[in-house]
Amino acid sequence: MPPLAHALGWDETVYVSQYDPRVPAAFFSAPRSRGVSFLTAPFIAATPSVLVLRIGLTLLSSAALYAAFRVWRPVAGARTTALAALLFAGLWITQISGPQAMPNLWVAFGAVAATGWFLRAVTGREPRANWWLAGCVAVTALFRAPDAVWLALPLIATALFRSRRTLAYLVGGLAAGLAQWVAEAYIRFGSVQDRLHVSSATEGDMGLHLNFDNAWSSLNGPLLCRPCTATVDSPGLTLWWLALPLLAAAALAHAMRERRLLPTALPMAVAAALSVPYLLMIDYSAPRFLLPAYALLALPVAGLVTRLNPRRGLVLAGLLIAAQLVSQATVLTRVTASTAITNERYRAAADSLRTLGLRPPCLVSGPRALPIAYDAGCASAQVDGNNVSTTVAGILDRAAKVPTALLTAKGQRPPHYARDWTPYPLHHTPGWTAWLAPAGPQGP
Questions:
Q1: 437: part of which helix (H) or strand (E)?
Q2: How far apart are CA 199 and CA 37, in angstroms?
């Protein structure tokens, strides 16, 4: 379990706070789905310990890794399945995602399992495979509703030609998984179309954006590249990414010669579909976005390696895999250290706010407000940016009722409505300042 510090990151705060009985729920934006919140709810209800939560998620994600790839054993064989799981688990972004309260790794597990059960349903005589397929698609939709649709598209297209009986289970599972997301769309946004419109605006107006350069730049971190001004760190450690499509093409050619096209081509098609929104429709990136594609592509690549016959070829492949695992551990160490520092800064800022007298019920606004407010036990609100949840009038109204702080970065002035608030430097942070509103009547 990577040492991510006993604090939650920005997005983790949003998901975990939804069902935390001790803290107000953070604003839940339109693109998000509630699977991670459901997953973490039992842990966070039992204890506020972030360490316990991370240990629990590590154990669950490890079990899910085994279960998802185990589905492929009758399809691809034991050696291929084990090697594919190793290749995927060896990625630094997979390892750092295991203990995190984030959805992309769970989408990867769902996509691998769903694709495997689909193949077992259409190529074998396993009546229960259809039900497992429906369940895996439904669970994937709970974690990321849009991703589940992209997952289903190539499976539906294949089912139309290979097994129309499977189509009913596939569509039924997708509908069941999307039900909660659709219901919330009508309750909170008015309709599915309105939620998609708001979601697109939150993501920066989704459209045709060739995003390969941002994906490449963020391959070795940071965890979120928005706006993506990063440059590739240690280009030699990213060669695997450039080799991946070449290896997949070689695996496809080999499968065509062996006349085993579907078990190789389908995971590649699903991987391509799941990559569309992140490589072609947004203008920022994060390494975790492509986790489902990596998990699926590991299967044909592993199949190619395990079919090498000459001993020299196997030895060379083993050395390359070992080098890949070592290089990924190097990146993991660096990114983990950077992430832990950021998380500790959030925790230090929250401690400083408590020292200044902020006690629940309270409110925190401004950059980085969500994770800091969560640690301080306060509500959070934003008047601009991607997480707009209130207005200036709303902030001022709350400030008149409960202790309120506005956060600014080093050298940044507060907005006009907080110019007369009192500034306090936040210790053990890179120059962040908390502007405290004048004390008003206390109460919720």
A1: none
A2: 19
